[in-house]
Amino acid sequence: MNKVHHTAIICSNYEISKKFYIDVLGLEIIREVYRKERQSYKLDLALNGNYVIELFSFPNPPKRPSRPEACGLRHLAFEVDDLDKIIAHCKSQHVIAEPIRIDEHTHKRFTFIADPDELPIEFYEK
């Protein structure tokens, strides 16, 4: 294996999630495709030119439990240079971060926000 290629996310409201991942997180659109046969959008997104997320929409996707610690993907994490700056940016977009925590093993600062479907997103300071 070489690296993680991408993470796929199914959203409940495509336009709201698209706006969140582009405007709040600052990801860049690589390609957007409407798949008529599946009534589904597929949006490929990049971070700093690297393909990282496939955002999908499907008609009536079932809800997935994420809390308390449900089995499955726990969260999506992004490395950041300045945690305070990303928290301020999120706040300016009306997205509130949890209180900053300190990793007990690395002593690095991190926090979480939630995407429009309550998927936990972590920002971990470099």
Helical segment tally?
A: 2
Give start-end ranges of low-pLDDT stretches: none
The share of residues in helices is 10-25%
Kindly identify the CATH topology of the largest domain.
Answer: 2,3-Dihydroxybiphenyl 1,2-Dioxygenase, domain 1
Describe this protein's structure.
The chain is an alpha/beta fold and 126 residues long. It folds into two domains: 1-61, 2,3-Dihydroxybiphenyl 1,2-Dioxygenase, domain 1 (Roll), CATH 3.10.180.10; 74-126, Roll (2,3-Dihydroxybiphenyl 1,2-Dioxygenase, domain 1), CATH 3.10.180. The protein is built from two helices and eight strands. The strands form two sheets. It has a four-stranded mixed beta sheet, with helices on one face. A four-stranded mixed beta sheet has the order 5-8-7-6, with helices on one face. The longest helix has 11 residues, at 14-24. It is globular, with a radius of gyration of 15 Å. The model has no long low-confidence stretch (mean pLDDT 92).
